Amino acid sequence: MRLPLIALLAVSVSIHAAEPAPKISDWNGYEKQDFEIAGHQALIVVPKTVADGRPWIWRTEFFGHEPQADIALLGAGWHVASLKISDMYGSPAAIDLMAQFHDYATRAYGLNPRVVLEGFSRGGLYAFNFAATHPDKTAALYLDAAVLDLRSWPGGKGAGVGSKACWDQALQLYGLTEETAAEFKGNPLDRIEPVLKARIPIIAVCGDSDNVVPYVENTAQLEGRYKELGGNIQVILKPGVDHHPHSLKDPQPIVDFLLKHAYAH
Question: What is the enclosing helix (H) or strand (E) of 197?
């Protein structure tokens, strides 16, 4: 039996009313709103004046670490967001949770249907895999010393130090074994095609002496393939720099790239 319009409206109102009011606090002079999505901590930082098109950037891991680009984008009218789903390594279960957060943020806050994903370190797994799964919901990628191959980190199967505890977690989440992981084709570096097809621009920042997430096994591989296929990618390589510090002291090159390219198409 079809419900009359007034009943449907009542159901809708009750659903939205069930969402708890966010907790309000200050973050670097901006209003931060904390709430939960599917039992996971989430937040959105609101700019003082919202830019046209309601753009936003989503830090997929380590919110608040080296935040200079986020703060600059807040000043340019962007919202900044984060969903805490640590220790999920960009797995399909993590991407499902991210889709729920994206749907909530675009509905409740009226944010742009396409978001810039910001992947610091292991956050690169989340950022790139979300973009590859949902290219229509992705405006750009900002990757910073980003993991793009599980075998590189946490696997430590190449030049990097790896992490056995994290590797064991990742294998379980992806349903892999040591043997099947060797032939696994679900890493970001295996999923370039949908990102390229959607013409998603990428800016990457990394150190050329990274001993944790080696540049040659991750960003260098992405850069070579993306450029060869005609994709828009800019890499800022920091000579002599290890995994830390992330970002740039002056984030303007990152901000300029995103302001120019993220919502250009």
Answer: helix 192-197
pLDDT-derived band at 7, boundaries 50, 70, 90: very low
Considering its fold, how many domains does the chain have in total? 1
> Is residue 255 assigned to a domain?
yes
Please, what is the Cα angle at 191 between 212 and 82, to 5 degrees? 65
Residue 246, domain member (yes or no): yes
In whole angstroms, how far apart are CA 18 and each of 13, 14, 15, 100?
Answer: 9, 6, 5, 16
Beta strands in 4-157 (DSSP E): 23-27, 30-37, 40-46, 56-59, 79-83, 115-120, 138-144
**Beta bridge partner(s), residue 43:** 34, 82
Chain centroid to CA 133: 12
Cα 176 to Cα 167: distance, rounded to the nearest angstrom: 10
Q: What angle do CA 41, 45, 47 make, to 5 degrees?
A: 170
Which residue in 16, 59, 15 sits closest to 41, CA to CA?
A: 59
* Residue 178 tokens, joined: 């040591």
Model pLDDT for residues 67-79, shown as the tens digit of each residue: 999 999 999 999 9
pLDDT above 50 (res 207): yes
DSSP code string of 177-189: -HHHHTT---SGG
Residue 119 lies in a domain: yes
Is the pLDDT score of 223 beyond 50?
yes
Q: Note whether residue 5 is domain-resident.
A: no
What's the rounded Cα separation, in Å, for the pair 236 and 208?
A: 10
**pLDDT, tens only, 13-45:** 333 434 668 999 999 999 999 999 999 999 999
Give the residue numbers spanning the domain of 243: 13-261
pTM: 0.92
CATH of the domain at 50: 3.40.50.1820
